[in-house]
UniProtKB/TrEMBL annotation:
Record-annotated membrane-spanning stretches: none
UniProt region (Disordered), positions on chain: 1-20
InterPro entries listed in its UniProt record: DNA_methylase_N4/N6, DNA_methylase_N6_adenine_CS, N4/N6-MTase_EcoPI_Mod-like, SAM-dependent_MTases_sf
Keyword terms: Methyltransferase, S-adenosyl-L-methionine, Transferase
Species of provenance: Pseudomonas panipatensis
Residues covered by the DNA methylase N-4/N-6 domain: 72-320
SUPFAM superfamilies, per database record: S-adenosyl-L-methionine-dependent methyltransferases (SSF53335)
A single BP term in Gene Ontology: methylation
E.C. designation(s): 2.1.1.72
This protein's name: site-specific DNA-methyltransferase (adenine-specific)
């Protein structure tokens, strides 16, 4: 008997039952059937990281095209904001530490700042390509999600309007944004080469927040009907007395977690576990990350006891994600 089958209520597995299972029992049975199908879809290489997590080496849009409609229940992802920063050309320059769209910021008060892509230098052609890319992704996700399924997708203040509009154009409902309050050293710099001459000038505001768009596939009937039929439509509350909130203070990933998973845009587990938990209102269903990277979404789902699947086309990050999944998913949140 598999672990998932063991989780089915005992009364739902008795032989000779005559009454129909409850709507919750039916949801759990549907989840088990879908999970067995979804984690084996396609011919791409994959790793089953645990009974509840699978990582596929492959392009998200291509993999979504093979996925049957109404197969996943939620999406939580931190995509390449401008797309081009993870093109092979620019990615190799990031790894070598020089050139391309990635900028190596100066040290500040002895703090070494990590590389960040310069989205202010995108050409009109690159902006059009960005919009088309996220539009294609959104249409694929819209088809793959069950009715009422939520998407929580990270962006940044420079590009979020463009990205989020592409998702709305695909027929997804905008349901607000989660604002991650994050004190960083990004932005706020004086003019390069003329810092003393223009000592009172910053070229950009210091970045202190990160927007995560919240989108939902239209529901099938009322909220209650959709929850009973698909297990989706809302966001899971923090507790009976406290709803999930759209502002979450969370500093950058540092210390032990960064040592475990040296990914250039690693989001901390203390943030990821909160948004992943909220994505499945009943705790039933499959969470998908199209850009799984270091497997931080999959690790957060594992920590919450959720089923999850991720894709990434970068073989290096795929290898990293396989290696760090267990350490990330079991990392105590006070060990940072």
């Amino acid at each position: 008997m598999t672990q998932l089958n063991q989780e089915l209520p005992a009364r739902a597995r008795r032989k000779g039952r005559e009454r129909a299972p409850s709507w919750r029992d039916a949801l759990i049975e549907h989840q088990i059937e879908k999970w067995a199908e979804v984690r084996e879809i396609g011919a791409q290489p994959r790793s089953h990281l645990s009974d509840k997590a699978t990582y596929v080496l492959g392009d998200a849009i291509q993999w979504l095209a093979e996925l049957p409609a109404n197969s996943i229940h939620a999406v939580v992802t931190d995509p390449p904001y401008g797309v081009i920063e993870y093109d092979d050309k620019h990615h190799e320059k990031l790894k070598s530490g020089r050139g391309g769209v990635w900028r190596i910021p100066p040290s500040f008060d002895g703090a070494k700042r990590k590389p960040l892509p310069r989205f202010t230098v995108l050409t009109q052609e690159e902006i059009s390509g960005l919009y088309n890319f996220f539009g294609a992704l959104a249409y694929g996700l819209q088809r793959a999600l069950v009715p009422g399924g939520h998407i929580l997708i990270a962006s940044n203040p420079l590009l979020s309007t463009l990205t989020f509009h592409a998702f709305q154009q695909a027929g997804l409902e905008k349901r607000g944004e989660v604002i991650r309050l994050v004190q960083t050293l990004r932005g706020g710099d004086r003019p390069k080469g003329a810092e003393e001459e223009f000592s009172d000038v910053s070229m950009m505001a210091r970045s202190c927040w990160e927007p995560w768009g919240i989108f939902r596939k239209p529901m099938d009937g009322t909220a209650a009907e959709n929850l009973r039929k698909w297990g989706t439509g809302g966001l899971r509350r923090i507790s009976a007395d406290e709803p999930f909130k759209d502002v979450i203070p969370c500093s950058p990933t540092r210390g032990r977690e960064k040592e475990i998973a040296p990914h250039p845009s690693l989001k901390p587990q203390r943030f990821m576990r909160q948004v992943v938990r909220a994505a499945l209102p009943l705790g039933i269903g499959i969470v998908y990350d199209p850009f799984a990277g270091s497997s931080s979404t999959l690790a957060a789902a594992e920590a919450n006891g959720y089923l999850s699947i991720g894709t990434d086309r970068d073989a290096g990050y795929y290898a990293l994600g396989r290696e760090v999944f267990t350490p990330l998913s079991t990392l105590p949140l006070n060990e940072r």
